Amino acid sequence: MWLVVVLTLALFIWMMVKSVKEWGALHAVLVSLMFIQVWCFLFFTAGVASRRNGYVKAYDTLRKKVADRERELDQVRTGDKLNPNPDLDSYVPVTKQLERLSVERGRVWRGANVTGLAQNEATLQLGMVAPVVLNPVDPVEGAAPAAANAPAGAPAVDLGITAQTIVHVFGESSDQRGLLPSIYLGEFVVTEANVGIIKVKPTSVLTAEQIAAIGSGRFPSWSVYELMPLDSHDAFAAEGSKSEDTAIFGRMDLNEIANLLSIDPALATAELSGLSVKEAIKARVLQSYLNDGARPPEGTPPEQVYVQVEFLKDYTIEVDAQEQRNATEGGFYDLSGRSVDARLKRGEDGAKVSFKQGDRIVFDSATTNDLGKQDIIKIVTPVFVRSLNDYEYAFREVRRQITAALQDAVLIQRELAEMQKSQGIADNQVRLGQDERSKLDKDFAQYKKELDVIGAEATRLGETVQTTRSEISATFKQIQALRDQIVMKQKALSESINALSGATNP
Predict the structure, then answer these.
(1) Looking at CB atoms within 10 Å, which of 45, 161, 210, 228 has the fewest?
(2) CA 430-433-436 angle, 5° bins
(3) What is the pLDDT of residue 349?
């Protein structure tokens, strides 16, 4: 570069020497100044260009970093958009799941302090807890300002619970995670509601266990649920566990589930044949929760065996039905399993769900057979899927069965008392019968003696009769012989008389 400057300067000086006589001094000075300015401009321009190149490189580098950060941020917010399974490490899927769980569970009043227990009635001071926000502010876009001058912990004027509201009450116990519902106390109806203080009564007769738990004082705070919590497969998975081929709902923690169900963990591996009926039922329940999403154990009913499949080709399933109705008018789905409730429909853009080759999903056996016949999927492994429970119905049914069992027990006790009374009478009759038999045994012995005497006398009399008969027969024969002799003599005498008289005897 400097060589170019020197050559240009030498050329300029040669041109100025040749032209100065014709231009004059003024033009020569102006041209010289312009030459110097041009070179200064070139130097400044080169510096600016050099710096600009550096800034352009830095800009490109930063733009790539920003794009990478935006992709990372989008990944953190929404997860992998091409993955049909929600990434619960991302903000949006977790938020949506929280919204769904909040809607499904209804309103909840935690930490309700029991301020009074009267006969068949409880008074509760509801905890002043902020309601769940169904649409929280995206932390990426910035948090919304807090409510103006809202003091922390300010009591709410209206907690949204009114008289005649049916609620489900759980007793709370404390652990490292805080106060958590641990025992179901029953279904109650709100009789009075006044600024956070409510009075509740059970809708039906409570079980002995529920009455004992309420009266024990071990649960000074209650959780009040507007809706009975719903059963789900994911709710019982260990915290932080993820779906795997061997556990599609996540890993099930034995100790945690056994603690929740109040069942001995040892029953998880116990043989049912060696247990009592009650223990066998507990073992079967515990094992069903532990095996949920895993390989089906031997003897699993076919309706609880699902199949994990892998798509061999791209496939699209239509999930929205053309018709539309409310769930109360005929359920959430039509006969083919497509959603008809508007709240469940994905809309025009999401009316179909597409799967790519290699995607894995779990289907029921019927769907698996249909798609397998079309060579669309291949079977990966069978999966045990626990039948979900309707806890509200289950608790009512258990209470009904317990009530019926108690009533049956009263009837059985009454019948048992009658049977015991009858048994006493029967025992008395048996005792009298035994006394009578003892007497009869004695009479029978005497009867046998008399019978022997009578038999001997009968034998003797029989012999006497036989002898008498023989004598009578001999006498009869003698009489017959004498009669014959008399008849013969009479006949001879008659003939003699007739002969003497000369006339025949008529």
Answers:
(1) 45
(2) 155
(3) 59
Q: Which pairing describes strands 305-311 and 360-363: parallel, antiparallel, or unpaired?
A: antiparallel
Closest CA to 364 of 297, 291, 308, 443: 308
For residues 111 and 222, give the distance between their C-alpha atoms in angstroms, rounded to a whole number. 6
Residues 78, 95: Cα–Cα separation, whole Å = 10
Q: Report the C-alpha gap between 9 and 28 in whole angstroms.
A: 14
Ranges under pLDDT 50 in the chain: 130-156, 504-506
Distances (CA, A) of 432 to 118, 435, 439: 57, 5, 11
Q: What is the CA radius of gyration of the chain?
A: 56
| Residues contacting 294, CB < 8 A, separation 6+ | 246, 247, 252, 383, 384
- For the chain, give every domain's residue range: 2-78
Q: Is 396 exposed, middle or buried (0-12, 13-18, 19+ CB in 10 A)?
A: middle
Which residues touch 210 (CB under 8 Å, ≥6 apart)?
184, 185, 186
CA atoms lying within 13 Å on the CB side of residue 441: 6
Give residue 480's identity as a one-letter amino acid code.
Q
Q: Give the model's pLDDT for residue 132.
A: 46
Number of Cβ within 10 Å of residue 446's Cβ equals 10
CA distance 366 to 372: 10
What's the CA angle centered on 479, arms 473 and 482, to 5 degrees?
145
The one-letter code for the residue type at 278 is K
Q: How far is it, in rounded angstroms, from Cα 35 to Cα 27?
A: 12
Angle at 8 between CA 5 and CA 14, to 5 degrees: 140
With CA atoms as reference, report the closest residue to 400 among 262, 169, 206, 121: 206
pLDDT (0 to 100) of residue 63: 92
DSSP E strand stretches across 119-196: 121-125, 166-175, 178-194
Give the Å distances, CA to CA, from 273 to 262, 263, 283: 21, 18, 11
- On the CB side of 307, CA atoms within 13 Å amount to 17
Q: DSSP per residue over 264-312, as a string?
A: -GGGGG--GGGS-HHHHHHHHHHHHHHTTTSPPPTT--GGGEEEEEEES
Enumerate the β-bridge partners of residue 317. 353
φ/ψ region of 149 (left if φ > 0, alpha if ψ in -120 to 50, else beta) reads: left
DSSP per-residue string spanning 17-41: HHHHHHH-HHHHHHHHHHHHHHHHH
| pLDDT value for 378 | 92
SS3 317: strand
